[in-house]
Amino acid sequence: MQQLQAEKRLQLGRRAGALRKTGALPAVVYGEGIPSQPIAVKYAAFVRVWKQAGESTLVELKVDEKPYTVLIHDIAYDPLTSRPTHADFYAVRMDKVLRVTVPLEFIGESGAVKNEGGILVKVLHELDIEALPADLPHTFPTDLAKLAAFGDRILVRDIVAPKGVKILASPEDVLVIVEAPRSEEELAALNEAVSAPVEVKTEAEIKKEAKVEAEAVTETEEKK
């Protein structure tokens, strides 16, 4: 289990901005029967643990040496830099079923994409599940090598959930599919129908960019 050190935080509201300038991340820990408690963690340590644990793996959080078993429950991001600006830690009860979101981990390579020029369409990137904290999976590995021809798809029912894990999506929901490549005429028609979009970052894109930054921070820390 990943471990993260924290300390009680006195800087609240706008004063939290000064805390961030010191290399710390404002956060809060709470849970069933646990009053909300403002804390601070080192930013570099947080992104390193977050990279490994994500939001579906248990973390041991020590607040002034008092341990809590937590999930990284929610993260706020700077809309311009995509850097985390605040984190929520949810202290879990090991005997209580939780509902969390687990990311899909796409592995392997589709023959239809590699050899036939097919277009890989990832319809879903994560699945909602229910499980006891000790049974929570980190990811759901999804093997793209199964996609050998145009039209091949991977459904929710193809995911083998670990014991004690209930996937909440419909078994017939599509996770990923391979489509035939578009012709030049289809691409031209598509370009005419769609005007140039205004770039607006979605929450998923912000998370992805923040993950990339987390990896960069980790690599920098490891080189020191």
Provide structural commentary.
The protein is an alpha+beta fold and 224 residues long. The chain is 24% helix and 38% strand. It contains 5 helices and 13 strands. It has helices spanning 16-20, 43-53, 111-116, 184-193, 203-223, and strands at 2-8, 24-31, 34-42, 59-63, 66-77, 84-91, 98-107, 119-122, 126-131, 140-143, 153-155, 166-167, 174-179. The strands form 3 sheets. It has a 6-stranded mixed beta barrel with strand order 1-3-2-6-5-4. The chain has a 4-stranded mixed sheet with strand order 10-7-9-12, with no helix packed on it. Strands 8-13-11 form a 3-stranded antiparallel sheet, with no helix packed on it. A hairpin with a 2-residue loop joins strand 2 (24-31) and strand 3. This is one of the proteins that binds to the 5S RNA in the ribosome where it forms part of the central protuberance.
Keywords:
six-stranded mixed beta barrel, ribosomal protein, RNA-binding, rRNA-binding, 224 residues, alpha+beta, structural constituent of ribosome, RNA Polymerase Alpha Subunit, Chain A, domain 2, globular, Ribosomal Protein L25, Chain P, four-stranded mixed β-sheet, 24% helix
Q: First CA to last CA: what distance?
A: 24 Å
Strand content range: 35-45%
Structural class: alpha+beta
For this structure, the CATH topology of the largest domain is RNA Polymerase Alpha Subunit, Chain A, domain 2
Helix content: 10-25%
Element string (H = helix, E = strand): EHEEHEEEEHEEEEEEHH
| Principal-axis shape | globular
Q: What average pLDDT do the residues reach?
A: 86
Low-confidence stretches: none
Integer count of domains: 2
> What is the CATH C-level name of the largest domain?
Mainly Beta
Number of strands: 13
What spatial order of strands do you see in the largest sheet? 1-3-2-6-5-4
CATH architecture group name of the largest domain:
Beta Complex
CATH homolog superfamily of the largest domain:
Ribosomal protein L25, C-terminal domain
**Tally of individual helices:** 5
Rg from Cα: 21 Å
Major sheet description: 6 strands, mixed, barrel
Organism: Candidatus Sungbacteria bacterium RIFCSPHIGHO2_02_FULL_53_17
Keywords: Ribonucleoprotein, Ribosomal protein, RNA-binding, rRNA-binding
InterPro entries: Rbsml_bL25/Gln-tRNA_synth_N, Ribosomal_bL25/Gln-tRNA_synth, Ribosomal_bL25_b-dom, Ribosomal_bL25_C, Ribosomal_bL25_long, Ribosomal_L25_dom, Ribosomal_uL5_bac-type
Subunit structure: Part of the 50S ribosomal subunit; part of the 5S rRNA/L5/L18/L25 subcomplex. Contacts the 5S rRNA. Binds to the 5S rRNA independently of L5 and L18.
